[in-house]
Amino acid sequence: xxxxxxxxxxxxxxxxxxxxxxxxxxxxxxxxxxxxxxxxxxxxxxxxxxxxxxxxxxxxxxxxxxxxxxxxxxxxxxxxxxxxxxxxxxxxxxxxxxxxxxxxxxxxxxxxxxxxxxxxxxxxxxxxxxxxxxxxxxxxxxxxxxxxxxxxxxxxxxxxxxxxxxxxxxxxxxxxxxxxxxxxxxxxxxxxxxxxxxxxxxxxxxxxxxxxxxxxxxxxxxxxxxxxxxxxxxxxxxxxxxxxxxxxxxxxxxxxxxxxxxxxxxxxxxxxxxxxxxxxxxxxxxxxxxxxxxxxxxxxxxxxxxxxxxxxxxxxxxxxxxxxxxxxxxxxxxxxxxxxxxxxxxxxxxxxxxxxxxxxxxxxxxxxxxxxxxxxxxxxxxxxxxxxxxxxxxxxxxxxxxxxxxxxxxxxxxxxxxxxxxxxxxxxxxxxxxxxxxxxxxxxxxxxxxxxxxxxxxxxxxxxxxxxxxxxxxxxxxxxxxxxxxxxxxxxxxxxxxxxxxxxxxxxxxxxxxxxxxxxxxxxxxxxxxxxxxxxxxxxxxxxxxxxxxxxxxxxxxxxxxxxxxxxxxxxxxxxxxxxxxxxxxxxxxxxxxxxxxxxx
Length: 601
Fold this sequence. Notes:
Layout: E1 4-11, H1 17-27, H2 46-51, E2 58-64, E3 67-73, H3 81-88, E4 93-99, H4 106-117, E5 122-127, H5 136-149, H6 154-157, E6 161-165, E7 170-172, H7 183-192, E8 205-214, E9 218-227, E10 229-231, E11 235-239, E12 245-249, E13 252-257, E14 260-263, E15 266-268, E16 272-276, E17 286-288, E18 306-312, H8 327-340, E19 345-348, E20 353-358, H9 361-373, E21 378-380, E22 384-385, E23 388-390, E24 393-406, H10 410-419, E25 423-431, E26 434-442, H11 443-446, H12 449-456, E27 462-472, E28 484-487, E29 491-492, H13 495-501, E30 505-507, E31 514-515, E32 519-524, E33 530-532, H14 562-568, E34 573-577, E35 582-586, H15 591-596
Helix pairs in contact: 3-4, 9-14
């Protein structure tokens, strides 16, 4: 039997999980001296590399001495919490990373709650001890207090602590010791993480915890073998969550080592492998022995809390930039997404409209960003929260919100959040002029708040939130305060007319940009919408030419990327997303249609 350890790396977003996995891969000798390895090697997706966040959980394996250590790198953002929960069921131990300055954050609480509930004993890694403002001792106390508050057992409270600066490959068991390498971390993993339970002689049981897709072999299920053995070509039974049994055959068995996947002939209890050949496989399904099927408990996958309507682009500029513009193409792309992303759902409503449900704005904007990079063109409506009826009461999702901000701005932010129905729960000074404030707030109140928050804190504030629970509906929540500047003509925006419109508000449009009737070119400085003409040039007269006048000085337009624009729009507005541009427009382009539909003017 192989000597195996299975661990997950869990932490709040940006506390250094992927960088730590890089260090483990390098220092275990998994890469040959001739191999060139990129920084944050586990972040394979272009968006992950750009944003510096992990979106999908990924697994790797390293050899250390005689042992094989399977490591799963998990996302830290609340929108991808479903991934973390599933991964923790597949492992026997966890490295819990906490930033030596930021300490315990909302997502740390979320992952710790899941981990303790599954009875896993963690190894706590206090990372980024090289930060000038790091305070490892305070953070250790915070972690201990969190475990106590979460009802950890005596055994779980007796956790080993490693101090590390993962980026520099440094780790040590005591802050007083000189800096060492990751040897102490490898030894702690081998000592403290239990060996996988399960027996290769028992009937086969594998549970799928994440999905992949390959154009040649179709759906791939990545699974942990809890009992028995599995080999290429085996006939198996797939036990679905609803009790249905499907016969299948393993066409490919894939093992992991470093960043490589290789075909293997067989694997046994305790290992993590990928299996292909079963088209109907889903997360939580059990692959079992056809002679003696014993399905494992299906997994609970967190419910979506937000919906967005994706629609075919019907603006006057539709079809000029994208390759894929039809409803059928959008449907195929959403189907492909649902193949591997279990936390999202979609349904078709009407002609060329799809309601996509997810765990948060970030998850949905990442899908939209990937689609536009693939050449899609489509419209997106404003995100709406999912409202449920629980025991006859209308309920909506609430979030636990934590903001770190300069102490001078605390009053402004508390007041703004109060108008959005937030309830303040705690306020703690963080040192260096910063304060941490905790709130409970309806998810609706957070839509569109991030841009305002960054403006109020001059870009220095950090906000994090995670899903709490469904609670009774709280009534109307204040949304955007300002109206829109709407183009009343089709054509090309000119510097002369934009110069004259600058006093009316903030512009989103640069000169020489194509505009159309009903397109939003800026934010009005008042609460009402205003129709303006951005294409009016300067008239010539007999006395002077159109160009001979004082130089026009334009304030640079506000850059509206996908996330900012999605937060900014109201119910009667849409985003037009194409591979090259993001435009904001009114749902009804004609002013008389807007009046007829009772939209504010």
